[in-house]
Structure formats: C-alpha cells, structure tokens
Amino acid sequence: QVRLVEAGAGLVQAGGSLRLSCAVSGISVSIIPMAWYRRAPGKQRELVALITRFRDTNYADSVKGRFTISRDNAKNTVYLQMNSLKPEDTAVYYCAANTRGGNVMDYWGEGTLVTVSS
Fold first, then answer.
1. 52 pLDDT tier (thresholds 50, 70, 90)
2. Closest CA to 96 of 85, 105, 87
3. Pairing state of beta strands 77-82 and 107-108?
4. pLDDT digits (tens, 9 = 90+) for 57-109
5. Is residue 112 a contact partner of residue 63, using CB atoms and an 8 Å limit?
6. Which residue, 58, 64, 3, 5, is CA-closest to 35?
7. Which residues, including other chains, have CB under 8 Å from residue 41's CB and lie 6 or more apart?
C-alpha cells in the first residue's frame, strides 16, 4: 500500500520561505516520478513541480526560480523548497506519485495548507 504524508504547512509573510515534505511508504521515490500540485481558493488544481526518477525537474512558470523540488532517497521523502513566497502562492499543496507510468498520478497525499500574507 502506497502512502504519502505531507508536512510543513504554515503561515508566512510575503517574501518568506517554507519547505514542504512528503514522506512516502510502500514504494521507493527513486524509481517513480513524484510531483507537487496545488489548489488555490476558487481555482483548479495545478502542477507546481515534478521530479523524475532521473532527477530531471519541471516547474510551473509561476514558480520557476523560486521553488525547488528534490528528494532524499535514504529518507524516501520528496521536498518542495519555496522561496520568495507571494500571496498568490496561497493554496493547499498536494504530493503525488506516478506508480504505473503514463501521465497519471495515481497516489495522492491529503494536502497541506500554505498561507502567504501580504
């Protein structure tokens, strides 16, 4: 059974930083694509960042240069370092895993709320 548990929720002022973590059990993060998504109030869920098994990364244009996705294979954990946060980054952030290939994320965490005040 694959399980994803996010941590790192918080309230931060604009310009500040937060690091989210996603602890994974049931599968190794080193062999599958992992991603962070977010859903802002009143908006659809969007992809924020993705890391492949080869550590290639991809980011939404809105976070490029500010956010960094990484993983620690020994801890089986994926991280999202968020710097220079803006009020528009306020959202529930979800960790997701693609265990079956293709383009579908088939396991999701419950989400963690990030609030950025102006």
1. very high
2. 105
3. unpaired
4. 999 999 999 999 999 999 999 999 999 999 999 999 999 999 998 888 999 99
5. no
6. 58
7. 90, 91
